ATPase (Symbiobacterium thermophilum), 165 residues
Amino acid sequence: MEAVETQVLVKAPQEVVWWAWTRAERITQWFAPAATIDPRPGGAFELFFNPADRSRDCTAGCTFTAVEPMTRLAFTWKGPDAFAAVMNHPDRLTAVTVTMEPVEGGTRVTVVHAGWGEGDGWAEARRWHAAAWRQVLDSLKGALESGRGDLCCAPAEDQNQATVE
């Protein structure tokens, strides 16, 4: 099945977009309410959409597979519980790649979600993710362009990897 590809132009510098994806204290401001982020190959890329129950609707166990500072990151992905039977087994995880390209007026962010299987369950999961990634990128754009909070500025150096609950 063809990869899902979505992109957005964010009116923010490339490094600000990078930090939004690779800092737990930042990703929790626009993507998920809790996260464990360790931006290195093999490091955790775990988002918890219901922090009170970290065993459901989460990416627990997902990891970064590639990290190219400021330009590209890739990670394994689990779908929501509705698609767990299809796509959340360790040998059937899908793969997400995020690229950040500086362009006039900001940064072009592209998400490519690949690794879909065949069959009705996979097709339904792919359709759901196509809409979800659009919402995720809209949330990123809104958060970074709002001018509020710490998403606009360089992070403190001691917060390279973190868990935020």
Q: What stands out?
A: The chain has a mean pLDDT of 92.
